[in-house]
Amino acid sequence: MALQPSLRPLIVAGRPDTPHTLDFFLDYVCPYSAKTVITIENVLKPFFADGGKYGGKVKVIVRLHVQPWHASSIFTHETALAVARVSPQNFWPYTLALFKRQTEFYDIPASNLTPVQIREKLADIAEPLIGADKVADVKELLKLKSTPNGGVAVTDELKYTIKYGRQNGIHVSPTVLWDGLVAGEISSSWGEKEWTEFLDAKVSV
C-alpha cells in the first residue's frame, strides 16, 4: 500500500518489501484500537518478524485515524507524528505508551486542559523513550506557527493520514485492510487463533 516516505516509521511489523499488507486504521482515544494494538504487539509482530510463521510475507502499517468527535484526538495524533519525525524507531514504543494512558485524554479528563497543555502532556509521555533533548524537539514541532491558522510542523503529515482515510471511505476505528481491501470480518477481540486462521487462508506466498 502507498505510504509517503516521511511516514515510513508507521510500518510497525514485517519488512517494508513484503508482498502482503495489513493496514490498521487506529485512533489513540479509541478503546477498541487499544485492544488491537495489544494484539499487534503480542501476536502479529512475532508472526511477521524474520523467523516468524509469516516472516517476509506480511507487514503492518498503522494508519492514524483521527476521530473528530473526541476533542483531544487530533493532539494525540500530532504528537505521535512528531515523535515519528524526531525518533522514528520510537514511534511504535510511543504508540504503546500512549495507548496505555489513553484514558487521560478521553473527553471528560481532558476537558479542563487547553490545547497547549494537552500537547505538553502528550510530549512528556515520550521522555522515558526518547530523552529530554528529543522531547524538546517534539514540543518544538507541536508549537503553533506564526500565522493565525497555520497549524503545527506536522500538520501536513496529519492531513495526509486524514485524506488517506477519507479517500478509502474509512469511518470507524479500528478498521483493517488486507492488501488494500476492507476485511470486515476482523475484530479487535481476535487473538492468536483467529489471526492464524485468517492468515493461513489469505497468505499466498
From TrEMBL:
InterPro entries noted in UniProt: Thioredoxin-like_fold, Thioredoxin-like_sf
Regions annotated as coiled coil: none
Pfam families found in the cross-reference section: Thioredoxin_4 (PF13462)
Positions of the Thioredoxin-like fold domain: 11-184
Name by which UniProt lists this protein: Thioredoxin-like fold domain-containing protein
UniProt organism field: Rickenella mellea
